[in-house]
Amino acid sequence: MTDKSYRPINEVLDQLENSLQGESIAVKEVIETLGPQSFASLMLGFSLISTSPASAIPGITTLVAAIVFILLAQMAMGRKSVWLPRFITRRHMSSSKLRRGIHWLRKPVRFVEPFLKERLSFLFNPPWFWLPLISILALTLFMPFMEVIPTSGSIASAIIALFAAGLLIRDGVLVFASLIFLLSMPIAVWQFGFAS
Description:
It is built from 10 helices and 2 strands. By secondary structure, it is mostly helical.
């Protein structure tokens, strides 16, 4: 059920940045760049975009939520490659905003990556894997409503990024951390969104 195409997070960022040639990039191009068989890389790439300052792109939180929902649903069904509807794959995102977002992400990614490793791998097998998968699926259903709450979309995307990085590296600690942060998300949204 889990993605077998493991790669460092910085490599995902490198691939994204190298694909930014024109003024904008289509979702289809991002999929082709990261690989249609690499569910975890795609989930990580899109969630990192929405976590970064590139989240200022109108509608990006809803777009990322839709993509992640479809990716997770297809993983659960055992698909070997990604399929997304044309109205999503034809959507374009600003290359300059994405580039700024990627540059912003470099420092925190470089800091955390040395601490990541394969561990608690039992969490990636049924029935253990169903809990984080269903939890993240449920989160994506609420993300379109977060467009109106400051920073909440970025918080949700960061939780998805943790989950996706755990899948990518097979680090069960990251998957477990994503669940803990998901449980505390209502408090975080209140503190950083409504209370700001």
